[in-house]
């Protein structure tokens, strides 16, 4: 007799559909959300200490792997990345309050001065001493003019435009400039110094009110390395187009940093020239805008009309 070949299974395991592969995990429970937020507060209070995952897991009464997944799902970043951000904020706050760089380094929990520039400079977008200076030793020239969107202040250093602000009156705008650059010498533009600022402001006014081209002005971008990534990405979003905060986060290589992207848009000092008004929430709603939602809506409406 010819031996019988082994029988084949009569059914196969079901194939996974593309939808299965991209299905989002279940939303965390309210209890997990509360526990993770409490843990975030714990990290805030101990950001200058060593916080290995095992220590955090004991604090949260969870396994390390469960904690890692839950924290990332609720906060959008890993516990390590969250602590790094909080430590950086401590470091920056100490610099702003007048600490010497060395004192701020160790006070924020950085273990050595040899590594602080490697770990911190990328997050400041400039050296710690330059960040602390608040514009010390620089001369910033500014001018104010009225536009259809209210008073407009433009300020520039020798490198380019460092601030463009909308506001309701000149004195408030000058006070904001002083807050942003507390140690710089601020000078109202006069005579020859006013000419380039006037030309730039006229070009910007024409762009936002009469559908003129966006003026290609030199920009002096100042912010964290992350913020500058966000702003540079926005410079490539064309008039009449919009991008969601989620798409923006993915575009700069930080897909989970959606909330941080929104904060970077809010920290943008250069209205319209860095077009953060083109960033919206995922549902298409406006989100926030440093210069007021009515201005954001009007800018978008004008750009869409010009493109139609």
Strand content: 5-15%
The CATH architecture assignment of the largest domain turns out to be: Orthogonal Bundle
What is the CATH topology assignment of the largest domain? Arc Repressor Mutant, subunit A
Question: What is the number of E strands?
Answer: 6
Strand order of the largest sheet: 3-2-1-4
Assembly state here?
Answer: single chain
Q: How many discrete structural domains?
A: 3
**CATH superfamily descriptor of the largest domain:** Homeodomain-like
What CATH first level of the largest domain would be assigned? Mainly Alpha
What is the helix/strand order? HHHHHHHHEEEHEHHEHHEH
Secondary structure: helix percent = 40-55%
Average pLDDT across residues?
80
Determine the number of helices (DSSP H or I, runs of at least 4 residues). Answer: 14
Question: Low-confidence stretches at least 5 residues in length (pLDDT < 50)?
Answer: 1-14, 16-22
- Please outline the major beta sheet: 4 strands, mixed
Q: What is the rounded distance between the termini?
A: 81 Å
């Amino acid at each position: 007799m010819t031996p019988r070949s082994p029988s084949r299974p009569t059914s196969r395991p079901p194939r996974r559909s593309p939808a299965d592969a991209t299905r989002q995990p279940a939303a965390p429970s309210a209890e997990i959300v509360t526990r993770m937020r409490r843990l975030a507060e714990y990290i805030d209070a101990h950001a200058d200490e060593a916080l290995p995952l095992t220590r955090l897991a004991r604090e949260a009464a969870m396994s390390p792997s469960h904690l890692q997944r839950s924290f990332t799902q609720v906060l959008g970043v890993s516990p390590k990345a969250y602590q790094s951000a909080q430590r950086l904020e401590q470091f920056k706050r100490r610099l702003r309050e007048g600490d010497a760089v060395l004192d701020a380094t160790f006070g924020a929990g950085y273990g050595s001065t040899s590594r602080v520039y490697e770990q911190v400079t990328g997050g400041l977008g400039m050296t710690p001493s330059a960040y602390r200076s608040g514009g010390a030793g620089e001369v910033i020239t500014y001018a104010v003019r009225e536009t259809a969107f209210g008073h407009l202040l433009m300020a520039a250093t020798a490198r380019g435009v460092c601030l463009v602000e909308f506001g309701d009156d000149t004195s408030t705008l000058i006070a904001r400039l002083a807050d942003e650059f507390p140690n710089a010498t601020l000078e109202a533009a006069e005579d020859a110094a006013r000419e380039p600022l006037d030309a730039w402001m006229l070009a910007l006014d024409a762009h936002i009110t009469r559908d003129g081209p966006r003026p290609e002005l030199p920009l002096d971008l100042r912010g964290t390395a992350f913020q500058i990534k966000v702003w540079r990405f926005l410079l490539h979003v064309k008039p009449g187009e919009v991008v969601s905060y989620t798409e923006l986060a993915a575009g700069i290589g930080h897909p989970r940093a959606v909330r941080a992207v929104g904060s970077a848009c809010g920290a943008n000092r250069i209205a319209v020239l860095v077009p953060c008004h083109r960033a919206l929430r995922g549902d298409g709603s406006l989100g926030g805008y440093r210069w007021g939602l009515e201005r954001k809506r009007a800018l978008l409406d004008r750009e869409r009309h010009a493109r139609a």
